[in-house]
UniProtKB/TrEMBL annotation:
It comes from the Bacteria. InterPro entries: DNA-bd_dom_put_sf, MerR-type_HTH_dom, MerR_fam. This is HTH-type transcriptional regulator AdhR. Keywords: DNA-binding. Residues 1-69 form the HTH merR-type domain. One of its GO terms (molecular function) is DNA binding.
Length: 129
């Protein structure tokens, strides 16, 4: 598929795809007779994986490290697994932190809702922020 179709299917811009290629996150795709990029289904799977890594906050440098290991083949399976385990563990810590933050927000919202329901003026809030 052409870069425009590939971009549409991944949600990445053509510029981002070229950037990912330039920094080694994506292997250069095949080219047609006119020199245009032609992406394969495996490229789509890889791009979707990269998108997930970015969504989870993996830094570009770590994504590049993973991509380099992937390019080296099956001999790097343990290193790739370890990289993903470390990232997953960090995600779990962040998720725990965010869950605690969400709980605090829910408590504050409930406090303000109770104040509003009882007719108490928010200015009477004694030290609660």
């Amino acid at each position: 598929m052409q870069i425009s179709d590939f971009a549409r299917q991944t949600g990445l811009s053509a510029d981002t795809l070229r950037y990912y290629e330039r920094i080694g996150l994506m292997q250069p795709p095949l080219r047609d007779a006119g020199g245009r990029r032609v992406y394969q289904a495996r490229d789509l799977d890889w791009a979707r994986f990269l998108i997930r890594l970015r969504q989870t906050g993996m830094p570009i440098a770590e994504m590049q490290r993973y991509a380099r290991l992937r390019a080296q083949g099956d001999a790097t399976a343990a290193a790739r697994r370890d990289l993903l385990v470390d990232h997953r563990d960090g995600l779990r810590r962040r998720l725990t932190d965010l869950t605690e933050c969400l709980s605090l927000m829910d408590q504050k919202i409930a406090t303000y809702q109770a104040m509003i329901s009882s007719g108490k003026d928010a200015a009477d809030d004694t030290g609660q922020s």
